[in-house]
Amino acid sequence: MGCQLTDFPLGILTLFVPELTQALTYGDNKYESGQSRLLGIFAGFNILAFLLIFFFVPDTAGATLQKDERSLNYMSLEELNYIFGVPTLQHIQYQLREVVPWCIGMMNWTIRSHLLRQSVQRPNDPSVLYTWVDIKSLQRSEKEKALAGKNGETVEQTEEENSRRSMQIETI
User: Fold this and answer.
1) Could you tell me the residue ranges of all domains in the chain?
2) Which of 25, 72, 114, 157 lies 20 to 30 angstroms, CA to CA, from 84?
């Protein structure tokens, strides 16, 4: 169904491209100027689409996918409510104040460090608008708590033991 919805307008577009090319042509060279103008129109639509998506569509890259091992693209309704519950104005302000300056800093860093071979510090990542829960770490901690309960240990004893182990690993 999705392919039909996108392929139908593309089929209609192929019927109108010759007429659009002729309508955008003037002067002696009939095809080059009309085709380049048509390309400019499509490029403008692509830039407009990029800006609309950048400012109005929230990022779901850090969402907890794969809760169910059988499903690769599982996302709960609560997570979707959380993502799309952020007001649009707040999302736009975050993109303008945090992400755009970070992108400019990253471009500057990339040019200076990779192309010019200068020693510059990488810019800090932008502050986080959404916080995600790592499902695997939650499941692991729940299993540890359940095992600790079965062995007669308290949760505090298990946490103290885990912190001691991590301190031993850090000192090694």
Assistant:
1) 1-57, 72-132, 134-172
2) 72
